[in-house]
Design a protein that fits this description.
single chain; binds pyridoxal-5'-phosphate; seven-stranded mixed β-sheet; alpha/beta
Length: about 350
């Protein structure tokens, strides 16, 4: 039986994934040189298509890295000389904060109890901070931070750089890139591809900051840093041999998404999320973990199932539906349900029926 993976990452692959894999095999993508013209044209296409889909300005750079945890580390190394600020609404925000501390930066953080959002109006960021790190959608708790609230921060702190973890929400949030300097995601979530490729998108100002840090004699990373990535990017190459297969597949998935259109993808995401939340809001036993509606994730929904996670997951699995367990200490209390572009309305209805 073919399963449907509602797990939050890796997740269900895109409906066209198998077809694109066959194309990759037929075109022998596994053997092409990453210094050749075919690879460069694939990279150039991904760059343009991603910018079109997500509304990213032409001057921004699209870097390929190993994963999103790498993106967290590269962002700290390349844009923070001394201190960073972290908005923490779950384990992924915590992980980013830990990375900054391990890299010897002075850090400030604002953390909410799990499952709660922030009162953005009362947020104070110390003037000494160079970078603000925000996990837009923390997959561990299902807390979604409203884009408008995040973007308002830039006018209050215009001299700071803002970096957004969009790993489990891209390409859905509509972002004004005059207010955000860096975003990143991994392809195994909302792009429906196998794991092993991170995409890190940075503004020209962020690259300039990396130059300043290098001029001070501080390391920005050896294997990958913004300057080596940028130098290679300007010729649509990468410093190392990258995940050519996944980059090829991403190009194809972007075609599919563009054909559908981002507005339609957003509308479908909203509708499917509403169906799931409405169902659990009126369920006699289980509830959405996040109570405050503006902070409820559209793309990775966390449901409090009162300690029945293991039993429910086993039951659903027999019906061909895989959902995620709770994260960390919530393993038995929660199930996590991905609502990505590759999840069809029919599959969401089936999931709800089986519950
Ligand atoms: C999955 C995830 C990550 C980590 O991504 P990797 O590809 O495993 O490095 C980071 N942040 C969030 C919000 C995630 O959901």
């Amino acid at each position: 039986m073919n399963k449907v993976y509602f797990t939050v990452g890796p997740s269900q692959t895109y409906p066209t994934f198998e077809h694109h894999m066959q194309t990759a095999l037929k075109e022998q993508i596994g053997s092409i040189s990453h210094r050749g013209s075919l690879f460069k044209s694939i990279y150039k296409n991904v760059d343009q298509k991603l910018k079109t889909l997500m509304g990213i300005p032409p001057g921004f750079r699209v870097f390929f890295v190993g994963s999103s945890l790498e993106s967290m580390e590269r962002i700290i190394q390349n844009t923070v000389l001394k201190s960073s600020f972290h908005l923490i609404s779950g384990s992924f925000g915590k992980r980013w904060h830990k990375t900054a501390k391990e890299l010897g930066k002075k850090t400030f953080a604002w953390e909410t109890p799990e499952g709660e959002g922030f009162d953005f109006g009362s947020l104070k960021i110390p003037n000494s901070c160079e970078l603000v790190c925000i996990t837009q959608n923390d997959t561990s708790t299902g807390v979604w931070l409203p884009i408008q609230e995040i973007q308002n921060l830039k006018s209050l702190y215009p001299d700071m750089l803002f970096a957004l973890d969009l790993v489990s929400s891209a390409p859905i949030p509509k972002i004004d890139y005059s207010k955000i300097d860096m975003v990143f995601f991994s392809v195994q979530k909302g792009f429906g591809l196998p794991a092993g490729l991170g995409v890190l998108i940075v503004s020209p100002e962020s690259v300039k900051k990396a130059e300043v840090i290098q001029e001070r004699g501080v390391s920005t990373g050896s294997y990958h840093n913004f300057l080596t990535l940028d130098k290679a990017y300007l010729d649509f190459q990468t410093p190392e041999t990258p995940n050519v297969l996944n980059i090829f597949l991403l190009d194809k998935i972007l075609d599919d998404m563009l054909k559908k259109g981002i507005e339609k993808l957003r509308k479908e995401t909203d509708e499917k999320a509403k169906l799931i939340y409405n169902f659990f809001d009126s369920h006699n036993k289980y509830d959405p973990f996040v109570k405050n509606k503006p902070f409820r994730s559209l793309t990775s929904l966390v449901i409090d199932v009162k300690g029945e996670s293991g039993r429910l997951r086993a039951k659903l699995s027999k019906k061909g539906i895989e959902v995620g367990s709770g994260y960390g200490a919530f393993k038995e209390d929660h199930v996590r349900i991905a609502n990505f572009p590759q999840h069809s309305l029919e599959d969401v209805n089936k999931l709800i029926r089986e519950f």
